[in-house]
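INTERNAL AUDIT FORM
Audit reference: QA-55
Scope: verify that the stored structure record matches its stored sequence.
Auditor: D.O.
Record contents follow.
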Amino acid sequence: MLLSSTNKNEKVVLGLLSLSINKDENLTASDLLAEYRETEGMTLYLYKDPATDNFVGLVGVEHRPLTHEAGEGPDQDERILINRMSVIPSFPVDQVAYEMYKDLKQQYPQAQIAGAIQYQMQDPVADLAAKYRQEQVV
């Protein structure tokens, strides 16, 4: 289950954010947390594992309006860009990442969900989306 992060669980958020920082990024988890809290349209979600009732994953997203040309579909949809995703290493990373993706898709059923290129998330999110689409067909 995805829940918006709060000040109450800041230590967990900082720990999971630190797992998402690439070696070549000159950032700290505190810098990232401040960016998400101060930037409109950016949200950090924690994933609570239903079996253990513990927070085991984090996904950082950016909400962007998506406009279409006249006659090309809805006047406006939303695009959700996944900037960051991390899972506590003792949990199955692929499984938890997929559960986070599914929860985002359920929370924003009309939104396009994609991975942010600048954070090398496009391929992992594309794989999650393909798995989700395949599951919906079955």
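Auditor finding: record pair retrieved intact. The mean pLDDT is 89.
Action required: none
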